[in-house]
Amino acid sequence: MNLRDDETTIQNLLDGKLGEAEFIRIEQRLAEDAGFRSLYLSYAKSHHLLIERFEASGIQACVASPGPIVLCRRRMAMALAAVLTALATAGALFQVLKKEPSAQLVFGPETGARLDHPEGKAGGDRMWPGSSLELDRGSISLVMPSGVRGYIEGPGRLEMESPTKLVLRSGRAWFDVPEGAEGFVCATESLFVEDLGTQFGVIADPGRPEQVHVLKGKVRLHPLNHPSDTRQLVTGEGTEWIHNELANAEGPVAFSNAFPSKVVVFSDSFSDPDGTPLHGKAPEAGAGPWTLTRGEMTVRDGHIDTRGQRRNAAFAPLLEPRLDDLTHIMLMTIEAKGPGDEGWAGVSLYTGDVERIFVGDPNGPVGDWALHPAGAETIYACPLLSGKSTVTLRYNYRNGHVELFEGSTTTGTPLVSQWIAPGLAFDRIRIANGSQLDAILDAGGNEAEVKMYDTINVRSNISVRNIRVSVLSAAVASAGSR
Predict the structure, then answer these.
(1) Which helix (H) or strand (E) holds 424?
(2) Helix, coil or strand: residue 141
(3) What does the pLDDT read at residue 114?
(4) Residue 446: pLDDT band by 50, 70, 90 thresholds?
(5) Are strands 191-204 and 210-223 parallel, antiparallel or unpaired?
(6) N or C of the chain: less Cβ packing under 10 Å?
């Protein structure tokens, strides 16, 4: 550009007349071109002096009908006010240009995370060099200053060392590196991975070997403790760090590269007319009707409950998709009035005929919400929830982590959590109640040999208003052979 063009461009900048593309181009020139920056500052100073002189003249608004001169002055005042606003905006922009570049973050559904920034930096939607992200659950997408796109799944920890380097301490990550951004690095605790123009994925899950997989293009990597052992991987290849050495990874792998969608696999709000039997009733969403295997339950006032001393149990099948390594989160939200006596009552998830997870009131005097994975210890909610409540169970197929939250989302702090078996795929749901004696007999005990308190045969009650089971289904996935 010549001087006249530059002057016109700067005037348009101060007047706020530039389009988005031109504005971005001027940002770059202000950061890189000292001559253009000097010309801009000269114009900005002139405008500022004009404003000072105008304000010092003390022009007042007229009460009488304004004449042409007053109208002219008013127009000038409005124009100068616009220039002042544009000048302030441009000045703020110029200060931003001198700051360090940052990575932009977007948080996905059902995500809980904490950001920690270096001194002098802030922002709930960005990372700076020196920032760290603790991803308790869920996922985030990010865009690096160079244009590299990433998708990170928790639980995990991510650190930003520089505008071109991330460190994945734990979790899973997918990256897409555009042309011109080659050289981007994602390191782990053991590996240094440098992009050479590609799409690639990194797995750093606790308790399993760290892995790198190239989905398109190529990467170069080496162990951090052995820099000379450099490997280059191309499309479809993968490696893992196991027994302190690099080895070919085996089997297929999939990476999500977009936020999941919530797919309802079961839902029932029990809004049927009073007296509707639960047996044979179709839920609002599900793979089939309820089947009563014990007792007799009917809809009453928009609820299904296990009232009375009768023992009750009813099952309903879940729709697909089933959980797998990609679609790995299941959520179950229950709105109910919790029980409060010596027996047990609640909602369970099943795989075939095997009970996997119970949510409700287990046997005992506490009479409150608890989480009881099959074969594991019962853990009560903390703080205790009493009376009418909404709780949500979250299960992670990949690592077996199960959590219970108050409310209908899982973004906050869990009431209780437990590690159980990973890889469970649920296909049925059950509402049931019983007594301590029922539980003993179900476990193979002999009623004649049981000598406990009188409350051993008290059956509890739960009144359920709504049940919804969902899975977080991966919207887009990239798969590579290992």
Answers:
(1) none
(2) strand
(3) 96
(4) low
(5) antiparallel
(6) N
Question: Could you tell me which of 142, 177, 145 has the C-alpha nearest to residue 158?
Answer: 142
Residues 6+ apart with CB under 8 A from 24: none
Measured between alpha carbons, how far is 388 from 202 in angstroms, rounded to an integer? Answer: 44
CB 77 within 8 A of CB 228: no
What DSSP letter does each residue of 286-331 carry, written as one string? SSS--EEEES--BEETTEEE--SS---EEEEEPPSPPP-SSS-EEE
First-to-final CA distance of the chain: 52
The amino acid at residue 6 is D
Q: Per the omega criterion (within 30 degrees of 0), is the bond before 178 cis?
A: no
**Of 173, 233, 249, residue with least CA distance to 205:** 173
Higher-pLDDT residue of 386, 332: 332
CATH code for residues 103-256: 2.60.120.1440
Strands (E), 209-296: 210-223, 231-234, 238-242, 245-248, 252-256, 261-268, 291-294
Tally of CA atoms within 13 A in the half-sphere of 435 that contains its CB: 17
Only one residue has tokens 């949500």, namely 392
Distance of alpha carbon 33 from alpha carbon 28, whole angstroms:
8
Residue matched to tokens 């939250």: 405
Strand ranges inside 145-190, DSSP E = 149-162, 165-176, 185-187
Who contacts 121 (Cβ-Cβ below 8 Å, separation ≥6)? Answer: 128, 130, 131
Q: What is the CATH number of domain 261-474?
A: 2.60.120
Q: Which two tokens stand for residue 365?
A: 């005097």
Q: What is the mean pLDDT of residues 147-162?
A: 97
Burial class from Cβ neighbours inside 10 Å (0-12, 13-18, 19+) for residue 51 reads middle
Separation between Cα atoms, residue 450 and residue 447, nearest integer Å: 5
Distances 319 to 108, 277, 350 between C-alpha atoms, Å: 24, 22, 13
Backbone φ, ψ for residue 362 (5° rounding) = -80, 180
Rounded CA-CA distance 472/110 in Å is: 9
| Identity of the amino acid at 193 | V
Torsion of CA 139, 143, 147, 149, to 10 degrees: 0
